[in-house]
Specification:
97 residues; five-stranded mixed β-sheet; 5 strands; alpha+beta; 23% helix
Amino acid sequence: MRGETIALDGKVLRGSYNVDTVCSTTESHPAIQLVTVYIVERGLILPIQPVDKKSNEITALPPVLKELAHRGVVFAFDALNTQKKLASRLSHQAMII
């Protein structure tokens, strides 16, 4: 995996939420959020990571990054994940941004 590009992106599953109404038969819950990790050169999707109900994609990424960081990969993010805290954490671990 050394030198390969890892693309990370979060998705909210459309229609996966439920709003509590008078005629509702199930409990109210927020939409399901997932983080997808894609190895670009291989066209391979690694196991999809669920995001905690009270969290978001930004807070779900650090454990995934930590797991892949020591393998010498190049990370690609969308604009949402270009946060200063995340960038400083990556640079402290001597990874390519």
